[in-house]
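Bench notes, afternoon.
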Amino acid sequence: MTKLLTLIPFVLWALAWMLGGHLIAHQVFRLRRDRLIVGFSLGLILQLWVSNLTAYILPVPYSFWAGALLVLAFGLAMAWKSLRDWRSLFAFSIPQALVLIFFFYVFFSIGRGLDIFDDFQNIPTTSIMAAGDIPPHFPFDPALRFGYHYLLLLFSAQLMRLGDLFPWTSMDMARAFVMALLILLAYVFTRRMTRSRMAGYFGAFIVTFAGGARWLLLLLPTALTQKISESITLMGSGIPTAPNLAQALIAPWVIEGGGPMAFPFAYANGINPPASISLGGVGVIGTLTLLLLIMLFRRLRDWSSGIVLMAVLAAYALTGEYTFLIVYPSIGLVLLFEWIRVRRIVFPRSFLPTLGVGSASLIFALVQGGVLTEIVRGKLFPSAETESFHTFNFALSAPSMVSGHLGFMNLLNPYQLIAALVETGPVLLVLPLLSIWGWKMFRARQWWEAGVAASAALSIFSLFVKYTGTAGASANTRLLATLVLPPTLYAVPLVWTWLQRRSESWKLSALSIGLVASFGGLVFLGIQLLAIQKPVLPLFINEMDVRMESRHWNQLPRDAMVFDPDPRRVVTVFGRSTDAMTSWNPKPEWTALMEDPDPYALQAAGFDYLYFGADYLDFLSPETQAKLQDACVRLVDEVQGIRSLEDYRKDFRRLLDITACK
């Protein structure tokens, strides 16, 4: 009964922003046939953006409700005159709704069986955000602001707080819902461009499964594969997979939490992974937002559509800093072409709405939180850089691509060039058609869409620039996003139109290339489906932690810090930051405390509680164990269980209050 009472407000909250987005799609953008999917996507992004802003002045969960209700209020205000014809206003496609539910179920079920891609970072961050830390601080050092593209984590935090969910469950739900929306939005986008339902199906398929084609290296002569392997220095998860690329291609991909069957390394990708395997990290919310912007900027007509697009574009900055920023020089390049064409510097009247939306969005992006806000704060106030987790440094380099698995690939080296091309995938073949489309949009004065096409060309410059900040070398893959993402979104619409007057051989060739691009994603999906039958907890959580979280999450004092030999666990369980890491590496002082958790030393270091299990207690010396029995130490709670499904020895989780140890 208590769970049902919790569920009712949660459902009303979700219905508020869904209905608001539906009304905005109907009245502001004059959509009729496709307003369900576009409306849900709009409502989601808008309420997240508003919730993020209101979190500066309202506590959680009031800021979450404010986001949903303000979106609903705006939608009702815009559609007020149309409410008389309410039957047509609220009509929607039932098949689309059922397909959305089906895709959500499939990807949510897959997510429950996998524990990969930054869950050690995103689940603790979700926990502290749901407890009210928005914009978030670094979960493992509360003194540092965590400049991060956290829009999906904000959605996860909303689901956790309002739905009374565990953070790992809310993360799986958030990723799955956004994935389901993206698939249907890709269908709508492609069908509207081609006026073909079949093309829409292909468009959704390519956006979901197309990516790099590393597996093509398996088809090369062994001698050539060996030469390529000798030129490659593996990075990231490639290092534990195998000593070199040649051996890695025939080995399972060594990652944590990969499900009941290992993924083959040959079908993974470190530059252009298919959307179908993006059920980790921040998911595909950036792709969803970009596609939404592409579709709706064509309908920028008045102040109401301008306000909505400004908010969506500002929200886009919270999904990826680079892909947001490159919008501006890309549109600037298009404007430069216009000046060259007319031989004078003048802003066309048709350009002013795009300029207004872009300028207002940039202002919000610089103050709303996330990466760009931290960059600006650091530049204006150099002393503030010491209070920010991330650093941002760049250096010029020879033309190269960076794969999260294959490392740096110099494009002047023929062997590394081959590796870079197959890692990027056949989507590069769409670039000429995308350039032609960009030129058509330029002539039609569709400045935003022309800028999206230009961003693919400008991404060439990212080959000569490398990021060297705290996010690590693998973050360089984000600089290639606009080289692969716009061609993927436009692949089927542009190729489908181009093939209409071509022979059957051309059509079969295009279909074959599409299958090559999608093969890796399909292989991964087949393996991912196996995970549905075995839901798992995060690697650092067990059922005792689940019970402890049910009792004590967000119940400790707001500024309390809890010491735990596993920092990921304690932040997740209690929704409170801990002081343990610098740039994902343990602090020396934290390591010393872990080896000898003297309650007086812990209190002096700023910790108020100690959380641990039987294995940690066994690790400590008898002298240290005796200190934990001191009169100043108070037992807050304890739960008991077993160590694992393979180890039935008795275990426990114990929370101790050490605030009196002074």
